[in-house]
Amino acid sequence: MEPLSSYVILSSAMLGVGIYGLVSKRNAIRLLFSVELIVNAANINFVAFARYSNPPILNGWIIVLYSVAAAAMEAAVGLALILVAFRLNGTIDVRRLNRLRG
Amino acid sequence: MADIAFLALSGLIIVSAILALEAKELIYGAIWLAFSLIGVAGIFILLGAEYVAMFQVAVYVGAVVVLILFTIMLVQRESGRIVEQEEPGRLGRAGVYVAGLVALAVAGAVVFLVPVSPETPGFYRASLQELGRSLALSYSAALLILGLLMGAAVVGALTLAKVEREEKPLGAAE
């Protein structure tokens, strides 16, 4: 059994990849990928900390179940927004979707 | 044994996450994202949470990635060209720096501040009954709110994505 810190390091590496995508990508769908990666990094932490508490508790699992469901909803609404933005502007490059800029 | 599985799964997760963001075609990126999410499900199995892993595969790989694939097809079909634009190299470098900094900070904080899990718990596997009882008794309000939220999200997504066009009688000549 690995120590708890190895799971946390894996999750922070995943967080790093997700933040890299959020900072450097211009395509709205890739930004959605990055958000999913970050949510999954958090989920790994929830399950790992729940497993390594003594005695193991179920709360972490249940939070992950809710978080997965919420992420699925977020993806559905986000993709619908991307479709609408594409229909209105003809592009999903977030740096060209700047009509709301003040 | 578990170490090898953990290392293999970590490699799968990180490599396919990077490939998901860097693949030239968006559609291959979505497939790599699915591999990464399957790797996370494997990590859940290593942690003894098979039920969560099942949920992860069913919802993420079964629903979210398929939804993303359909959206990519819709977006690319309507434009008739590949949507991807070249990223300027400056942004990519900035992204690498920011991400590396954040990941190092988090990992360092954990390694130095969290006590190395005092006594590693032995084999543990919660039963599905235990999980279901906890879900239905202690967390029932959250479950109901989640259901309402899900209904709202579905209605919202449908409303957003609806295409408005004038009604044509069935069977009318084009």
What does the model show?
The complex is a heterodimer of chains A (102) and B (174). Chain A has a single domain, classed as Helix Hairpins, CATH 1.10.287.3510. Chain A has helices at 4-24, 28-52, 59-89. The mean pLDDT of chain A is 87. With 102 residues, chain A is mainly α. Chain B is an all-alpha fold and 174 residues long. Among the domains of chain B are: 1-82, no CATH class; 127-162. Chain B has helices spanning 2-22, 26-46, 50-79, 89-113, 128-138, 140-161. Chain B starts with a helix and ends in a 13-residue tail after the last helix. Chains A and B meet through helix 1, helix 2 and helix 3 of A and helix 1, helix 2, helix 3, helix 4 and helix 5 of B.
Structural class of the helix and strand makeup of chain A? mainly alpha
Mean pLDDT of chain A: 87
CATH class of chain A equals: Mainly Alpha
- Biggest sheet features of chain A: none
Give a quick precis of the structure.
Chain A has 102 residues and is mostly helical.
Tag the structure with descriptive keywords.
heterodimer; A: 102 residues; mainly alpha; Helix Hairpins; 3 helices; B: 174 residues; 75% helix; 0% strand
